[in-house]
Amino acid sequence: MIESSENLLNQILARNPDMQREELLSMVERKKQESHGLLSDEGAVRLLAQQLAGLSGQSVNISDLRISSVQAGLSDATISGEILSMSQFREFQRSDGSSGKLVRVKLKDGSGQITCVFWDSSAEIVEKEQLATGSRLRLAHGYTRLGLAGEVEFHLGSRSTIEILTRTQATSLAASSHETHESPSVSSSPETVQVRIRKLQRSRGENGPAWALCENEEGLTMAKFWDDNKETVLSMGEGSVITIKNPWITERNGMVYLNAGSRSSITKETLVDIDSPPPVTIASIKPGPKLYTTRGVVIERTDAREIETREGRRTRVSNIRVEDGTGKIRVALWDNLAQIVESLRMGDAIRLTGIKARESSNGELEASTVFLTQIEKS
Prior knowledge:
There is one protein chain. The chain is an alpha+beta fold. It has 5 helices and 20 strands. The strands form 3 sheets. The protein has a 7-stranded mixed β-sheet. Strands 1-3-4-6-5 form a 5-stranded mixed beta barrel. Strands 15-17-18-20-19 form a 5-stranded mixed beta barrel. It is elongated. It starts with a helix and ends with a strand. It folds into 4 domains: 1-60, no CATH class; 64-168, CATH 2.40.50.140; 192-269, CATH 2.40.50.140; 282-377, CATH 2.40.50.140.
């Protein structure tokens, strides 16, 4: 066994003086057999340490687990690694009516990689910190289980802790009028951004941000307002032109977000107007993080259907195909927007504000709605 396991075995025996080492080793083997091969030696010892001696990562000096050795069934594990990718921050409603929050992070070390699932307060910490791909984290007091795809996942709940070991700057916002376009390799956040709020919504959770779909002459972006700025922007309302000082930029699941938190300030502008960017042709839409406004005629539609996401959240999705004379594109309508398909008919002219494009597995361009996408008949 590795050194950390030996340390735990000795501490278990010290707290259980009537137990023989051979008996304890037999219990380790039984734990491994009960897990049907999912627990390593160290994982089985850690579980016994909690059950027999009340030991946890806080009371035992155990080195971090290597990601390749992480097995399902651990209830108090610690890992460290570098961020490979991050999903979009999500809010959802549980079956008991309470609201939940979720962020998925792919973490790697020298031995392998693992999906880490941050729940509720842990998800809020990840969202509020200026983290990006390449940042290094230490995740303590997490638990492990098999995900829907049969892979081991590392989960973080209310008792887990997150330590930022090193930090990389987040990706710059392409829509900022204060960013230089001559140095695309430089990642930085703009000092000020001026936008109009097209659509605004309060978070379902008490501590979550206010969300806004914003626009300026450069295009569209999603913004999140935290702390005192949440109530401030909600009081300003949709249609307001605002200046955000000291925002920061995050990238989640291939999308760029503008954030305003405790170090930021927002001001409503009464003498400034911003023109909405005109719709683009379907032929000019390209895959990437940019949000587009386009318009066209509905030529296909499918009824909404309910699906279950990888996170176990049930949602609805429908599809339409739109053409404008320059091309055609399929658009997936998610969540509440899926129901809009019931009011659409073949031949309806519509305007889509805030859709994201990607390339499908067969090389076809397709788009999907995001949170606060607007769909209007025109």
